Amino acid sequence: MSEQKPRIILAILLGIVSVSLLAAASYSLFPSQEDSNIMPEPTMPTFQISPVNESPNITQGGSITLNITLVLKSNETEVTVPLYLGSAYQNQPFSGYTVIATPPPPYSNELPWEQIDTSTEPKPFTATFDPNPAVLKPNEIRTVILIIHVAENATLGAYNMDVAVSNYPQTSKVAMGFQLTVLPKYSP
User: How many separate domains does the chain show?
Assistant: First the structure.
């Protein structure tokens, strides 16, 4: 019996090592359900609006064209970037963003703002992005054109405008603001 004791201990140790190796291999080959539900970190595109460091002015009934430069700093994958435009009149109590421009479905349902002005009052602006959504390849820089039209009867003053992108989980919600001032229409 004393001769078999080392063999039994060795067999037990080999069994423990074998089971441990088998468990580690099966875990790496077949990840648990919890691991498969973990979403990858969204890509964070960067962007800038030009004219940079300016507060553009626009007259009632006029239009303005702005360039939005999108930069995807990623080597991994192509990203679809839907663009949104919202505004809040600076001299009024904040009741939420007035949504001015959205991408087409299915992106138009994922608004990047939590507080939305749902009033049925006429909106002071209309706007379009071209293209919307924009598709960026890894490490690509792309310009999107934003055209904003101001209503003839838009209230004069400063408006806080936010260009936002949101396509979770592919992109994070990111917004960049600028101020747009509506001036009176000049009449000859």
Answer: 2
